[in-house]
From TrEMBL:
InterPro entries: ATP-NAD_kinase_N (IPR017438), Diacylglycerol/lipid_kinase (IPR005218), Diacylglycerol_kinase_cat_dom (IPR001206), Lipid_Phosphate_FormReg (IPR050187), NAD/diacylglycerol_kinase_sf (IPR016064), YegS/DAGK_C (IPR045540). Keywords: ATP-binding, Kinase, Lipid biosynthesis, Lipid metabolism, Nucleotide-binding, Phospholipid biosynthesis, Phospholipid metabolism, Transferase. One of its GO terms (biological process) is phospholipid biosynthetic process. The lineage of its organism: Bacteria, Bacillati, Bacillota, Bacilli, Bacillales. This is Transcription regulator. It comes from Planococcus antarcticus DSM 14505. Residues 1-127 form the DAGKc domain. Pfam families: DAGK_cat, YegS_C. GO terms for molecular function: ATP binding; kinase activity. The keyword tRNA-binding does not apply. PANTHER family: SPHINGOSINE KINASE (PTHR12358), SPHINGOSINE KINASE RELATED PROTEIN (PTHR12358:SF54). Its cofactor is Mg(2+). Belongs to the diacylglycerol/lipid kinase family.
Amino acid sequence: MKTVFIINPAAGNGRALKKWHRFEKTIQFPFEQVVTTHPGHALAIATDYRNSQRDILLIGFGGDGTLREIIAGAAGAKTLLVGSVAAGSGNDFARAYGTFNDAQAIEQFREKPLSTRQDLGEFANGKVFQFVSSSGIGFDAEISIAVNRSPLKKKLNQLGIGKLVYLVYVIRTLLKFEKFTLSVKYDDNLVIYEDVWLATVSNQPYFGGGMKISPSSKTNDGLLELTVVHQISRLKLLLVFGTVFSGAHTRFKEVSQMSNTKFWLSTEKPVCRHVDGDDAGTSPANEMIAYTISQNGWQSIKLN
């Protein structure tokens, strides 16, 4: 099995490249490496391997955004298997799909490779957006986008306390966020939610660096889970966010969750949107957008 490392040097605000230099020295098997130079590069790299006639293990050395690009490029290709070495800031991908902790684990996997088919979420709005873990509208999207653009994130990451920046922006966004109305269609149902803070479509339990937003989500069951937080005060929302890491937020009446193969979502005004924590523009006003599972799944590593 050919092994290719796709390294995002910008992941973890530069820490990924330093980690790679240390990691590379411990590898005792043949491998290739490609270092990304711009957003979308990991997608292009993975796409280039799609026509390979031999099995290839693509290992993303970066964060959730890097893995999303690799998987989008590899989806539907029977010869491509995707794994990771967690080197980003949030690393929610690693929590749900497993990750290689060291080169020895990769070598052992290569001797007896096992894989499992995984779902890939998507929606179309001018172009197709795909997500591995989750896509959100509203409060969480605005926070994620602000965090990714923040110089504070880089400074705190250098001190080893990068996760604090998320808390900083939770509080900052909490004070100024404007709630919205969300319309949700699924099967023959139409539900209108007023005073909505966020709506997150999940394919796995975690988002935001370890928050268990959707405890019942499974990565390969052909279903998506929708979480809507609505009609809740700012103070109580802060309390709810404190319980998300354990998944206890689902006990609050202001948190609605449902599971289905497809959801149609519409907001009455443009609202910030993300895919796996990266900026996905804004939702179009009063236009139903279908969130569903892509016809092309992907093959992930299966660790014992």
